[in-house]
Amino acid sequence: MKRLGLILSGAAAAGAVAVAAWAIQSEPAAEGVTFMGEPVTAADIALGQEIYAVNCASCHGRDLEGQPDWKRRLENGRMPAPPHDETGHTWHHADSQLFTITKLGVGAVVEGYESDMPAFEGILTDAEIRSVLGYIKSTWPERERGFQAEVTGDEKAAP
Fold first, then answer.
1. Domain annotation covers residue 41
2. Hey, which residues does 29 pair with through a beta bridge?
3. Rounded to an integer, what distance in angstroms lies between the CA atom of residue 113 and that of residue 68?
4. Bridge partners of 124?
5. H-type helices in the chain, by residue range?
6. Which helix (H) or strand (E) holds 39?
7. 51 FRET partner, CA 20 to 30 A, in 8, 26, 45, 60?
8. Is residue 40 within a helix (H) or strand (E), and if so which, with residue range?
9. 94-150, pLDDT tens digit by residue?
10. Which residue has the higher pLDDT, 47 or 11?
11. Range of 60's domain?
12. Is 109 in contact with 100 (CB distance < 8 Å)?
């Protein structure tokens, strides 16, 4: 009888592990965050936060705060890195623009614009870029996220 109890306990533990693994793989969007209309999971956000720390934080700040005086041109004529939190303007742009800027550089969206920000094509995969942008979006208050979702939706609806 004791042996049967141990077997059943082991089976229950294995079942709990399997359910937990399934839940992680199929977890829902984190607090309603989407990218290009697709849900962003908590795992995507965690990965994006790690990638951001390695590739973006040195300029845009560990806490997404941007560089000081980010609205004033540097001596070289370029703009400092803006914040990606709600105090900046990242949330004013549609998902497709944010993706293109990250992958191909600002000049891909604003022709002739010179920026100190590198293009991340060949450095980050498309999925990694989406994760970073999902992480950034997950930090915005609901108001900013809602506005940005409208801008993204309006862009999708345009002919």
1. yes
2. 41
3. 21
4. 121
5. 2-25, 42-55, 57-60, 95-104, 126-138, 142-157
6. strand 38-41
7. 26
8. strand 38-41
9. 999 999 999 999 999 999 888 999 999 999 999 999 999 999 999 999 999 999 999
10. 47
11. 28-157
12. yes
Query: What would you measure as the largest C-alpha separation in the chain, in angstroms?
Result: 80
Backbone angles phi, psi at 38, to 5 degrees: -100, 140
Residue 107 contacts residue 116 (beta carbons within 8 Å): no
Look up residue 55 and give its amino acid: N
Roughly what angle, to the nearest 10 degrees, separates helices 142-157 and 95-104?
90
Two structure tokens written together for 56: 């973006």
Residue 27 has pLDDT above 50, yes or no: no
Tell me how long the chain is: 159
Number of domains in the chain: 1
User: Does 20 reside within a domain?
Assistant: no
Q: Residue 121 sits in a domain of what CATH number?
A: 1.10.760.10
Phi, psi (deg, nearest 5) at residue 118: -75, 160
SS3 46: helix
Q: How many Å apart are CA 43 and CA 47, to the nearest integer?
A: 6
**Residue 64 covered by a domain:** yes
**What one-letter code names the amino acid at 115?**
S
pLDDT at position 11 is: 46
What are 72's strand-pairing partners? none
Query: In this structure, is residue 22 part of a structural domain?
Result: no
